[in-house]
Design brief:
One of its GO terms (molecular function) is proline dipeptidase activity. By secondary structure, this protein is α+β, with helices and mostly antiparallel strands. It has two domains: about 5-150, Creatine Amidinohydrolase, Chain A, domain 1, CATH 3.40.350.10; about 160-440, Creatine Amidinohydrolase, CATH 3.90.230. The chain is built from twelve helices and 15 strands. The protein has helices at about 10-25, 55-60, 145-155, 160-185, 190-200, 265-280, 290-310, 315-320, 325-330, 385-395, 405-410, 430-440; strands at about 30-35, 70-75, 80-85, 105-110, 125-130, 215, 240-250, 250-260, 350, 355, 375-380, 380-385, 415, 420-425, 430. The strands form five sheets. The protein has a five-stranded mixed β-sheet, with helices on one face. A three-stranded antiparallel β-sheet has the order 6-7-8. A hairpin with a 6-residue loop joins strand 14 and strand 15 (about 430). Helix 4 (about 160-185) packs across helix 5 (about 190-200) and helix 4 packs across helix 12 (about 430-440). Bound molecules: glycine and manganese (II) ion (MN) (2 copies). One manganese (II) ion (MN) binds near residues 243 and 254.
């Protein structure tokens, strides 16, 4: 597969136009109108929050730092980009649009945010306007019609070749960061130091990353979304879990790796066992597979690892049935990814709405759809020793299902998660993450 997005953009835009046409017909509208978004300010302060572009906007153009711009699509016409390039001597003004994409648009440059109004379709009632309330401009108020959003969001799960190339570029950055992070860990850096090494190598600052880096040493790995960034390395140093992504033109990658200080020790063996489970599961990420079943398969496989390492004393089936496996694997197997790390429409039954419920007892699963070619999803099984959940288990009727001494031995290591991003096909999936690690880029 190619990794240069540029030659693939035209086909991507054509696909979006086709989807938009159907979505508008579903909602009974004539125009699709998408504001890029606005700057938000902290309460009682003139300090702004990092700007986050409207994902519906960046689906069309690889612009992530352009508040106040608008996209207008009317079937049968060239899409129009109303591009704000303000007269401003306080900030760096966005460059004029350049690169592979502007030639596909009717471009209108405006100098003031309000000037977008005169270039929007005349009758706001005929427009599906997708965005946040704060983007309203006069009578052009975001209405986010459900039939339009349901259609677009459902189909956004299927990535165009351009989008996959964009995600591959994001992965190149992420993998560079992960390599540097492992080196920093082995050299004894603090969580903060590892985070800085990651950002330096990925070439991205925190606000550019698609989510806050999870850089967890020792037992911090047991906090699923640990984002504290400790300034002092713990002693002794046992383990390192890093869940960190990168972005490229608005697209994300999402990668997790876990390392042991002692590369001959038992925790290293446990990491390798989880890694083995993750790779075997990957082979089943193919068209026609129900993601809910993959999640349950992951429970059984991980419980098998716990049994093998003497933590679990009952069968994997019994552990799944009684909820014991969920004490060690309390999150979902993964999620769709693309313009958003946790992509939209993970539960969508169809492009007309509806919800596919999660299996009972698995409240954090983010994807319940059946896999189809072109979907990009994560595969991120994990095993953790989380005090809160272990206490629940100890106080439950299933306390005897585990060996508490073995748990005690693993608690200082926190947990393990291994996460890759996979492109679903009819056959073996394309593993974006491992491909780039293997290329040594
Ligand atoms: N980095 C958040 C997640 O893996 O879902
Ligand atoms: Mn993830
Ligand atoms: Mn992640």
């Amino acid at each position: 597969m190619t990794s240069d997005p540029a030659p693939l953009y035209g086909e991507h835009l054509a696909a979006l136009q086709q989807r938009a046409e159907t979505a508008l017909a579903r909602g009974g509208f004539d125009h699709l109108v998408i504001p890029s978004g606005t700057i938000h300010y902290q309460v009682f302060d003139d300090r702004d929050y990092p700007y986050a572009v409207n994902p519906q906007f960046k689906a069309w153009v690889p612009l992530t730092r352009n508040p106040g711009s608008w996209l207008v699509f009317t079937p049968g016409q060239r899409p129009k980009l109303i591009y704000l390039q303000p007269f401003d001597y306080w900030h760096v003004v966005p460059e004029a649009p350049s690169g592979y994409w502007p030639e596909h648009f009717e471009l209108v440059v405006i100098r003031k945010q309000e000037d977008a109004r005169q270039h929007l379709p005349g009758d706001p009632a005929r427009c599906a306007i997708l965005g946040e309330a704060q983007s309203a401009l006069g009578e052009h108020v975001p209405n986010n019609p459900a039939p339009v959003l349901d259609y677009l969001d459902y189909h956004r799960a299927f990535k165009t070749p351009y989008e996959i190339a964009m995600m591959r570029q994001a992965t190149v950055r992420g993998v560079r960061g992960h390599r540097a992070a492992e080196r920093a860990f082995r050299a004894g850096a603090s969580e903060f130091g590892i985070h800085l090494a990651y950002c330096q190598a990925a070439g991205q600052d925190t606000v550019e990353l698609p989510y806050n880096n999870i850089v967890a040493l020792n037992a911090h790995g047991a906090v699923l979304h640990y984002t504290e960034l400790g300034r002092i390395p713990p002693k002794p140093l046992h383990s390192f879990l890093i869940d960190a992504g990168a972005s490229f033109g608005g697209y994300a990658c999402d990668i997790t790796r876990t390392y042991a200080s002692d590369t001959d020790g038992e925790f290293q063996a446990l990491i390798e066992a989880v890694d083995g489970v993750q790779q075997r599961l990957s082979a089943d990420f193919r068209a026609g597979r129900d993601y809910r079943q993959l999640h349950l398969d992951a429970h059984l496989a991980l419980a098998g690892v716990l049994q093998e390492f003497g933590v679990l004393k009952v069968s994997p089936e019994a552990a799944l049935e009684t909820g014991v496996s969920a004490k060690f694997f309390p999150h979902g197997l993964g999620h769709g990814i693309g313009l958003q790390v946790h992509d939209v429409a993970g539960f969508a039954e169809s492009d007309r709405g509806g919800t596919i419920a999660r299996p009972e007892g698995h409240p954090y699963l983010r994807l319940t759809r059946t896999l189809q070619p072109g979907m990009v999803v994560t595969n991120e099984p994990g095993l953790y020793f989380i005090d809160l959940l272990l206490e629940e288990l100890r106080g439950s009727a299933h306390a005897d299902a585990v060996d508490w001494e073995r748990i005690e031995a693993f608690r200082p290591f926190g947990g393990i998660r291994i996460e890759d991003d996979l492109v679903v096909t009819e056959g073996e999936p394309v593993n974006l993450t491992r491909e780039i690690f293997a290329e040594g880029r």
